[in-house]
Design goal:
By secondary structure, this protein is mainly alpha-helical. The protein has helices spanning 8-21, 25-43, 57-66, 70-88, 96-100, 102-118. α1 (8-21) runs antiparallel to α2 (25-43). The relative contact order is 0.15.
């Protein structure tokens, strides 16, 4: 039996992939976004406690600062807007295609996993 502990963000990522494979895209979208925020919180030692406001602007600004790459930042922004639109009903700011087109969502999800992997 493997006794290696996984972090919260790793568990969220694994659950996101699980729900993605089951075509439960809304759950997968929410989990991958939260996994990215939680990993950034952990890796960048921001010490925002679990249960706090994980959509904190501090975490988001740190991601933007550390991953200063235009494509990665676009992926992060698209992921955030899509998630907020799906979860809260916010207007989809140029991201409606991710919510309506499966192929576009699949591409966004794959890019989100790459973004997650870049946080180190």
């Amino acid at each position: 039996m493997n006794n290696q502990k996984t972090t919260l963000d790793e568990r969220m990522l694994n659950k996101a992939k699980f729900f993605y494979d089951k075509k439960q895209y809304l759950i997968a979208l929410t989990l991958i976004f939260e996994a990215i925020l939680d990993k950034a919180n952990r890796v960048y030692k921001l010490n925002i406690k679990e249960g706090s406001n994980y959509s904190s602007s501090l975490i988001k600004s740190k991601i933007r600062e550390k991953l200063n790459d235009e494509e990665v930042l676009k992926t992060f922004a698209d992921l955030e807007h899509s998630r907020n639109s799906a979860v809260h009903g916010d207007p989809a700011i140029g991201t409606q295609n991710y919510l309506e087109n499966q192929k576009d969502f699949e591409k966004l999800f794959a890019e989100a996993i790459k973004l997650y992997d870049m946080i180190n």
